[in-house]
Fold this sequence. Notes:
This protein is mainly α. It is built from four helices and two strands.
Amino acid sequence: xxxxxxxxxxxxxxxxxxxxxxxxxxxxxxxxxxxxxxxxxxxxxxxxxxxxxxxxxxxxxxxxxxxxxxxxxxxxxxxxxxxxxxxxxxxxxxxxxxxxxxxxxxxxxxxxxxxxxxxxxxxxx
Length: 125
């Protein structure tokens, strides 16, 4: 079991590196998203190896649209993270959202990145 947890740690470290790296153009963004998708799928697979996962309707739905998803929520599956690639059409996002909401799930869309919290003094940033 230690090797599984070491693999999860390696995935987390690699993901942090990818998220913190610059993506100067659309091709770089697409490559980063493909790697993040791969890491999410690997992590979800490792969770399944430890028994900390289940086949949820959310995972089946997002897989149908070829989207990478990962259960989270302290083994209870309280939340699912789904990567929505930059080039994914709004139509697909709307279909996935509508399908999940019709099953009683609440969908939120969030973006990774940005400047985060800033504290400004004296009117300058």
